[in-house]
Amino acid sequence: MATEEQRSEWLLTKGTGIKHELVVCLDVLATSSLSPATIERFTGLISRFATRLVATGTASLATATDEDCEAFCWARTRRNTLPSIHTVHLRRSAIRSLFNVLEQLGEAAGDPSSDIKLPSKRVRRARPLTDDEMTLVRTAALGRRSGAVRATMALALAEAGATTGEIPNVTWGDLDLKAGTARLPGAAPIKSRCAALSPWGLPILRGQLTALRPDSKAWIVTRVAPYADAHSGQAAISNLLSKLLRAAGLFGDDVRPGSIRLWAGSVALQSSGIEAAARTLGLVSLDATADALRAKGTSESGARA
């Protein structure tokens, strides 16, 4: 929620130009409950939306019309191509977050993007991998001609239940290889937690640790230097895991990078129950955990296929 100081700042900047108003709005957005990667993505999209408004002579963010919003959603990309349906929906989501911020700042103009009619986007729901499929992915990681070490370490963390957003932030200092666990940082809505490394992933990480210097505890497990930002780190890991799934012949509508961590959840569900699965996945809701693990390819009891 916007603070009183931010509301006062808005009143001071309102009408003085969109560029000044934008600073206040992005400051409020940065303190929202959205994940850091989403905030970063929305910040870029909202800034581009504001630039278009300035170019069309709009006086204030609060006076943007539904026509302004729809034109931005369907605007051509930087490569002068038509935007994908996913991009159109993402742009509208960013605009909606902007008008949510404006409402927090005391603007009662409503959300002009709410009436925009967009084609429905097909939701690609990931399912957990089976044990046999995990074996194929591990083989693909070990068989890479280049980058096999990085691929196996990323896979080892994914097998512990880490998301593609968490993996780029795990350091060697977060690992307790004697106990066989990893501290995962979490990111809304995923909770931070101590996760058990898989019987395959633990020796992979132990073997690599012996080659590191004593001062390497602060190093990122999948990279010596930190990633440039949260979005680029998540994208890099997502692309890497997608390549492994493709090499294993598995990548498709219901098999995505998240299918690897869902496998970890299904293992915990089968061995220890739904609460253990929720802890592994970092989910607060048991219903959400059950729903994720009952996707196509998983039985009603949650056991692995």
What does this structure look like?
With 305 residues, this protein is mostly helical. The protein folds into two domains: 4-104; 131-293, hpI Integrase, Chain A, CATH 1.10.443. The chain is 50% helix and 3% strand. The protein has twelve helices and three strands. The protein has helices at 4-13, 18-29, 36-55, 66-73, 85-104, 131-142, 148-158, 201-209, 230-247, 258-272, 274-281, 286-293, and strands spanning 175-176, 181-184, 193-196. The chain has a three-stranded antiparallel sheet, with no helix packed on it. Helix 2 (18-29) packs antiparallel against helix 3 and helix 3 (36-55) packs across helix 5 (85-104). The radius of gyration is 22 Å and the shape is elongated. The protein starts with a helix and ends in a 12-residue tail after the last helix.
Features:
12 helices; 2 domains; mainly alpha; 305 residues; single chain; hpI Integrase, Chain A; disordered C terminus
Q: What coarse outline follows from CA principal-axis ratios?
A: elongated
Question: How much helical structure, as a percent, in the residues?
Answer: 40-55%
Rg value: 22 Å
| Main pleated sheet | 3 strands, antiparallel
Topology pattern, helix = H, strand = E: HHHHHHHEEEHHHHH
CATH-defined topology of the largest domain = hpI Integrase, Chain A
CATH class of the largest domain: Mainly Alpha
The overall average pLDDT, rounded, is: 88
Question: What CATH architecture of the largest domain do you see?
Answer: Orthogonal Bundle
Question: How is the largest sheet built, in terms of strand order?
Answer: 1-2-3
What is the count of distinct domains? 2
Number of strands: 3
Assembly state here? single chain
CATH level-4 homologous superfamily of the largest domain: Intergrase catalytic core
